[in-house]
Amino acid sequence: MEGLASGLAMGLGAIGPGIGVGLVVLGALQGIARNPEVAGEIRTNMILGIAFAEAIAIYALVVALLLKFV
Amino acid sequence: MRRLLSPRVLGITLAVLVLMVGSAVVLKVPLPGISLPAEPVACLGGHLVEAEHGLACSGGFPITNTMTGTLIVDLTIFLFMYFALRDKQLIPNGLQNALEAVIEWFYGLVEDVAGKENAPKFFPLVMTIFIFALVSNWWELVPGMDAFGWIVKAHGKGGWEIKALFGNVHTLVKEDGHYTLVPWLRTVTTDLNVTLAMAFISVTYVQIAGVQALGPGYFKKFIKPGYASGLIDVFVGILETISEIARIISFSFRLFGNIFAGTVLLFVMPYLIPLFVPLPFYGLEIFVGLIQAFVFAVLTLVFISMAVVSHGDHEH
Q1: Domain count, chain B
Q2: Residue B236: which pLDDT band, with cuts at 50, 70 and 90?
Q3: CATH number, domain with residue A52
Q4: Which of B61, B174, B205, B315 would disulfide-bridge B44, Cβ 3.0–4.6 Å?
Q5: Could you give the number of structural domains in chain A?
Q6: How far apart, in whole angstroms, are the C-alpha atoms of residue B90 and residue B59?
Q7: d(Cα B299, Cα B199) in Å, to the nearest integer?
Q8: Nearest by CB to A48, which of B256, B260, B295?
Q9: Does the structure's ipTM exceed the value 0.95?
Q10: Hey, of B106, B258, B292, B296, which one would you mutate to test binding to chain A, going by the most A CBs within 10 A of its CB?
Q11: Residue in A58, A61, A65 closest to B36 by CB
Q12: Which three-class secondary structure string do you get for chain A?
């Protein structure tokens, strides 16, 4: 049962952040396409945005690992 | 398409595939003991005993494997600094050049985010967080990390057999048994205590920087004094307080989760297929270690610069 819970936690918890990271990169790519000069700045802010969105997936991963190993 | 399917290419591909599958059968790699909390490996003034859940200290002060990891990380940073700054030249070369490049790049970033006059104030803390997190994360990749330690009885799930090598030294072999390994050196940032402490320091420093810049009026973003504070202001104040507290949790879990999952990945991949397949995951871990250290430091910097800006009329 714990294995099932662990798998479900990670699997369902990765849907939202997956879409979220895609949206962040979509915005960054469109920005770079419009204004290639500031690509460096856009890239820095994109990395920040990706870290925020991915943190939610990491919370789900921690729950999955807790269920499996503790 | 002809060049792609030439006999030479096909032959190499086949050899690699055979090696991958063959190594999974022939080389028997056991799975190391994966433990969420850091475990004590020595006791100052006490005895190390095997208790219910792994090792414990009967009396005395426990030294955990992440504490020894922190010592190694500190030693690395000191040695690097010592050799880089030994004979300082005006035109830098070698290690000094690398050091100056990193500092200049990061200082430029801090100036971009915080402004030229605030940069010298915030640079030390942010750079320290970056360097400490980066060196800790990259030590995870060094062969031998998490590999040597005490062999103890595995409690509950799994366990492997041991084989004697020489003297009292044993190694785990991939046959069902009752033993597992508690490593002497463990990646520092896989300990939630470490990342929680770093997150506390960051968030506390944000408040201190805010008060230094704006005086006690800094707390007006949480509580608006005076008669004219409406319901919206109270709600926004509560929201700000909760978001500050959520930052502690988010900082600590982001770094901990990424690096701990990375170590679990690096343990499990060789357990499944020892040859060739772990390579892309090593590359991923190099990248993730760098990005997570960078993100922790830059997020701290962003929150500090948001806190020192005077909150005039805010439109929410």
Answers
A1: 1
A2: confident
A3: 1.20.20.10
A4: B61
A5: 1
A6: 54
A7: 11
A8: B295
A9: no
A10: B258
A11: A65
A12: CHHHHHHHHHHHHCHHHHHHHHHHHHHHHHHHHHCHHHHHHHHHHHHHHHHHHHHHHHHHHHHHHHHHHC
Q: DSSP code of B80?
A: H
Q: What is the pLDDT of residue B274?
A: 87
**Residues of chain B contacting residue A51, judged by C-beta atoms under 8 Å apart:** 254, 291-292, 295, 299
In a domain, B76, yes or no: yes
* Contact assignment for A51 to B295 by CB distance below 8 Å: yes
**B13 within a domain of the structure (yes/no):** no
The C-alpha atoms of residue B106 and residue B111 are separated, in whole angstroms, by 9
In chain B, beta strands by DSSP E: 40-44, 47-51, 54-58, 61-64, 149-153, 160-166, 169-176, 179-183
Domain that holds residue B187: 27-308
Whether residue B315 lies inside any domain: the answer is no
From chain A, the residues in CB contact with B250 under 8 A are 55
* In-domain check, residue B22: no
Of A62, A63, A66, A68, which to mutate for an interface test with B (greatest number of B Cβ within 10 Å)? A62
Residues ≥6 apart with Cβ < 8 Å to B211: B218, B219
Q: What is the pTM of this model?
A: 0.87
Is A35 within 8 Å of chain B by CB? no
pLDDT band at B316 (very low <50, low <70, confident <90, very high): very low
Q: What percent of chain B has pLDDT over 70?
A: 95
Query: Amino acid identity, residue B23?
Result: S
pLDDT-above-90 percentage for chain B: 37
pLDDT digits (tens, 9 = 90+) for B82-103: 988 888 778 877 888 889 999 9
How far is the C-alpha of B285 from the C-alpha of B258, rounded, in Å? 9
Cβ contact, residue pair A58, B36, below 8 Å: no
Which of chain A's residues have a Cβ under 8 Å away from the Cβ of B259?
none
Residue B31: strand, helix, or coil: coil
Range of the domain at A12: 2-69
Would you say residue A19 has pLDDT above 90?
A: yes
Cβ A54–B254 below 8 Å, yes or no?
yes
Chain B residues near residue A67 by CB distance under 8 angstroms = none
